[in-house]
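Hi R.,

As promised on Friday, here is the backbone we talked about, encoded as structure tokens. Could you run it through your design pipeline when you get a chance and send me back a sequence?
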């Protein structure tokens, strides 16, 4: 056990006038299982990369342990999987790698195939397991759940719970709850560590947030009252000054005016001091601003129907036939292992290039709004994107602001956005759409916990008709009306 110390850390990206961190201080025990949370774009991945020494910064990062970063970049995926894993941990024996990956329910025969033949979920598991074989290392694990289905997330969470010595960046609440004992959070104003599980941290955070929001509202009312009083004082001062003009006994009037002016000045000084003190007490709080969705009513209660449908690839079915109906007000989640055809089933309602067996009935004149799983094609400015999608750019930016964007991000090329910010662009665009049915494919990939709560509250409040693939169990439990397992 040793300490990792971050002292007076200040960092800004080249060409940026805004510091990502400013005099940040935090102390971490190398034996902790540390969950790392915060809004997209607040600097979680940046902090990990600073710990790896990838950027220059002012301040100190002091550690006697070696930092390893996940996801590990495999440059040649055509090599045998075991060869790749031996490169990941050069000190590990073959039997140790086989033993470790077996803890994650991976078929060890896959180690003797090309790495590229493993599924994305299997690649995640074997790389993560092998990295834990390194001696005197502290793992910086950056969003490992994005290629994992619900079952795989539970397996990996159980595995991580048996380990120690890592920082885990994740936005999956159930996943965090099952494998961490401390929470490191980046808020608007600071970085802090709490010794607790995630549910306890979230409960305390929400209560503290509510108290701080209430305090801010009271302070804002006090500040408004003080400003009004200051304006009245200034008006009174002007009236006093005007009494010097005209009149007969100018000496007496001048004397009284001077006394009144001094009294006015003293009062203004007291009011300015009170305003400054009140303003200092205002908290920089993470607000969960309310989102809206503009769903349309459909002329029929039934919007779509799937009858014994299986997606085909090269003429072969990749899932067992599935039947279900999408009725008005339904929020249907498709669950299943990676590669079971969930995304393709969604696409059958808007992409005619997908091959399938069975019958898909889509309501006439049905308007759908889509959030795709892949965001890599995003480029250009937000205004250009809004024009292409035929949506109001002002509304798009207003929604993004509620999801944690700031003004400087509006002018950037979207290729520069983080993965979470790109996903938020598609979420905001869908919320701009007026549609009968919302089809969202893994909408919460890379999305921060605060925004997930906002989206949950939105769906519960407005109850749009939806068809979704999403592996966040807490999100499913909160909003699903029906869960269909694809095999």
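Update: got your reply. Pasting your designed sequence below so it's all in one thread:
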């Amino acid at each position: 056990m040793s300490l990792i110390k971050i002292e007076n850390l200040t960092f800004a990206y080249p060409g940026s006038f805004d510091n990502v961190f400013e005099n940040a201080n935090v102390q971490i025990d190398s034996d902790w299982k540390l969950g790392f949370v915060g809004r997209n774009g607040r600097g979680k991945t940046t902090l990990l990369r600073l710990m790896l020494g990838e950027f220059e910064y002012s301040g100190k990062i002091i550690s006697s342990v070696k930092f390893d970063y996940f996801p590990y970049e495999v440059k040649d995926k055509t090599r045998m999987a075991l060869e790749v894993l031996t490169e990941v941990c050069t000190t590990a024996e073959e039997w140790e790698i086989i033993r470790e990956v077996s803890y994650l329910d991976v078929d060890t025969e896959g180690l003797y195939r090309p790495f590229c033949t493993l599924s994305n979920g299997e690649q995640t598991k074997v790389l993560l397991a092998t990295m834990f074989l390194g001696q005197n290392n502290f793992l910086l694990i950056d969003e490992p759940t994005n290629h994992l289905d619900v079952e795989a997330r539970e397996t990996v969470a159980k595995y991580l719970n048996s380990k120690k010595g890592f920082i885990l960046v994740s936005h999956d609440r159930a996943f965090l709850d099952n494998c961490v004992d401390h929470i490191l959070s980046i808020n608007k104003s600071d970085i802090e560590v709490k010794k607790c599980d995630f549910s306890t941290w979230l409960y305390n955070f929400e209560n503290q947030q509510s108290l701080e929001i209430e305090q801010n509202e009271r302070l804002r009312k006090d500040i408004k009252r003080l400003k009004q009083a200051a304006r009245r004082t200034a008006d009174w001062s002007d009236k006093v000054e005007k009494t010097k003009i005209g009149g007969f006994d100018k000496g007496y009037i001048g004397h009284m005016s001077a006394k009144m002016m001094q009294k006015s000045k003293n009062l203004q000084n007291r009011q300015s001091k009170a305003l400054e003190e009140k303003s200092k007490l205002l908290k920089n709080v993470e607000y969960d601003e309310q989102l809206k969705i503009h769903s349309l009513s459909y002329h029929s209660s039934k919007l779509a129907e799937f009858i014994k449908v299986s997606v085909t690839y090269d003429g072969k079915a990749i899932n067992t036939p599935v039947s279900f109906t999408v009725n008005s007000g339904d929020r249907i989640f498709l669950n299943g292992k990676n590669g079971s055809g969930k995304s393709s089933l969604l696409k059958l309602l808007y992409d005619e290039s997908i091959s399938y067996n069975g019958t898909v009935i889509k309501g006439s004149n049905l308007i759908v709004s889509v959030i795709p799983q892949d965001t890599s094609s995003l480029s250009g400015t937000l205004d250009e994107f809004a024009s292409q999608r035929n949506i109001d750019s002002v509304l798009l930016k207003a929604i993004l602001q509620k999801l944690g964007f700031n003004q400087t991000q509006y002018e950037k090329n979207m290729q520069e956005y983080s993965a979470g910010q790109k996903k938020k662009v598609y979420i905001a665009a869908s919320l701009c759409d007026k549609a009968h049915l919302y089809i969202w494919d893994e909408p919460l990939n890379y999305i921060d916990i605060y925004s997930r709560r906002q989206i949950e509250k939105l769906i519960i409040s407005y109850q749009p008709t939806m068809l979704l693939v999403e592996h966040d169990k807490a999100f499913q439990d909160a909003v699903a009306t029906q869960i269909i397992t694809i095999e």
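One thing I noticed while checking it: The two ends are 45 Å apart (CA to CA).

Thanks again,
M.
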